[in-house]
Design goal:
178 residues, mainly alpha, Rna Polymerase Sigma Factor, Chain: A, 2 domains, 8 helices, 67% helix, 0% strand
């Protein structure tokens, strides 16, 4: 980061390489559209490059980046003027040797589909905190940066969002435990 701040474009390119995937996934979480998310991530990196002089030494880069990505994506969402729909994909990878029975696999796929449908039906702010923590596996600080909220607010927002999601699912089976 310090080399990038001194104008080293190769160093900045390396930062982009290291964080491009999480920037895209974060923007996708907010926008729900791959093309829009790609544009938002690229725009955010341009903003980061222009703002390198404002980055505080000693601070972690990733939360700062995610705050910029989140703000850029939210601005794009507002400007496009339509309700976003989040299309999250559940990754179903399993080892063939220890594969569950076909019935168990179908039940798991149905459960994942119900959860994703319920997440998609949540308010945008709830989708962001649920998606950031459980689908992107972001830390509380990174979730706060993405959502544009104070780090101490993440737990309460997440708790309320989980409660609304559980109510929507009508199921108390511990679907988000762990």
């Amino acid at each position: 980061m310090s080399r990038a701040r001194r104008g080293d474009d190769i160093a900045f390119g390396r930062l982009v390489e290291l964080h491009a995937e999480v920037a895209f996934r974060t923007a996708y979480l907010v926008l729900g559209d791959a093309s829009e998310a790609d544009d938002a991530a690229q725009e955010a990196f341009l903003k980061v490059h222009r703002s390198l002089g404002r980055f505080r030494d000693g601070e972690p880069f990733r939360p700062w980046l995610l705050a910029i990505v989140g703000n850029t994506a939210r601005n794009r969402r507002r400007s496009r003027g339509r309700r976003m729909t989040l299309q999250l994909r559940a990754e179903a990878s399993f080892d063939r040797a220890t594969a569950p029975s076909p019935e168990a696999h179908v039940l798991t796929a149905e459960r994942q589909a119900r959860i994703l449908e319920a997440v998609n039906a949540l308010r945008p702010d709830d989708r962001v905190v649920i998606g950031a923590r459980y689908f992107l596996d972001l830390s509380e600080a990174e979730t706060a940066a993405l959502a544009g909220i104070a780090p101490g607010t993440v737990k309460s927002r997440l708790s309320r969002a989980r409660a609304r999601l559980a109510a929507a699912l009508g199921d108390r089976e511990g679907w988000l435990d762990g």
